[in-house]
Structures are given as structure tokens and as C-alpha cells.
Amino acid sequence: MCNQLGCELKGDPREPLQTSFLHPVTGEKVFVVMDACHMLKLAHNMLQAYSPIATATTGQINWRYINHLNDVQKKDGLHAANKITDKHVYFENHKMRVSLAAQTLSRSVSVALRTMRDLGYSQFKDCEATAEFIEIVDRLFNTMNGRNPRAKGFKAPLGALNWMERKAFLSRAREYLFTLLTKDGTPVYQSKRSIKIVLVKFMT
Predict the structure, then answer these.
(1) Which residues contact 105 (CB under 8 A, 6 or more apart)?
(2) Omega into 52 within 30° of 0, i.e. cis?
(3) What stretches of 63-106 show up as alpha helix (H) in DSSP?
(4) What is the pLDDT of residues 160-193, one digit of tens each?
């Protein structure tokens, strides 16, 4: 549909994409933005399918830390302020449920992973890259999905007061996503499960 309307979203993401088309009556530009909920599900499913994923700086992003977190919480009978359960780990029959993706790739899970590491749980020793990935994706989702005018932080909608801060974050997040590599060294954005974050026009 986007291509039929005059957009081009399949090129090299490092090059400017054609993310708008002209309204046939007014001649004004109409911009296309990917559905944030669907993009979150793609990121979630990609993490589980492609782990481990290499980053340029902090090591490997790995789904196994989600497994470890669930195992520890089940064993101890306590949750570290997150909603991870078996249904989040074994989600094969529920890949289209946004709630599972949102609860897995959430700041609370990122904080929980780092907390387990800081408490000395050996299985979380190298979880920083995973925690960072989850935190960035959570912020991207909140930025693109924000609609409550009373919300704060990254859940607040884009506006004049937070635009420069958000623009800087979106630029950093975009470059970060370009650094991610699959096991065979292929950039994730060139893989079959590419994550296209169409933010080019926001940053120009």
C-alpha cells in the first residue's frame, strides 16, 4: 500500500527513505509511520529467534537472560517488579500478543536484569547488552506510542518541550540498531527479520 501511494521503504535504511506522499487534493505531504505495536512484536520475536545478537560495544544480546529471570523468580517465589512468567518465555502460540512483547521488552525487565547481576547472580554476569537493548526498544516504543498528555518521561507525547531531547535519542537509537549483528555477522537490518524504524523524516 505504501509503495502504491508513492513511498519507498525497502531501500538501504542508511539512505533517506521516501516516507511521505502527496495528498491528491491538497498537495500536502502525508507521512507514513510504522505501527509501533507491530514493530514491538517484530523486535520481540527477532530477539528470541536470532539470539545471541552482537553489539558494537556491550557484548551479546541474548534471550537466555529472560529465561534466567523467569527461572530465578519461579524458584524464589518473588518477582523483581516485572511481569515475566512462563507465558512470556514460551510464547510460540501467542506471537501476535502485544502485551507479552510490551511486558518482556520493558524497562522493568531491564532493571531486573541489572539488579540480578548486581546482587551477584552468576547467570546474569554478562547481561548488560541485553538490558541495554530492552531499555532502548522500550523507549522507542513509548516515544512512538505516547498519547497521554499527562504522561511523563518517554511516555509523554512528542511536543515542543521535549522535541530536542527526543530527536537526540532517536538519532542514537537509530545508529545503535544499525550496529546489531546476527550470529553469522549479517547486520540485523539486512536480515529476514529486519527492524525498520522509519524515523528518517523526523530527524531531518
Answers:
(1) 40, 43, 44, 47, 134, 137, 138, 141
(2) yes
(3) 64-76, 86-89, 98-104
(4) 888 899 899 998 998 898 899 999 888 888 877 6
Phi-psi region of 16 (alpha: psi -120 to 50; beta: other; left: phi over 0): beta
pLDDT tens per residue, range 89-103:
998 877 778 899 999
Backbone dihedral region of 32: left (phi > 0), alpha (psi from -120 to 50 degrees) or beta?
Answer: beta
Q: Which of 119, 136, 138, 116 is nearest to 127 (CA)?
A: 116
In the chain, the amino acid numbered 5 is L
Cα(138)–Cα(29) distance, rounded to whole angstroms? Answer: 29
Whether residue 178 contacts residue 13, with contact meaning beta carbons closer than 8 Å, is answered with yes
Q: How far is CA 2 from CA 22, 32, 94, 167, 194, in A?
A: 12, 8, 27, 24, 17
pTM for the whole structure: 0.85
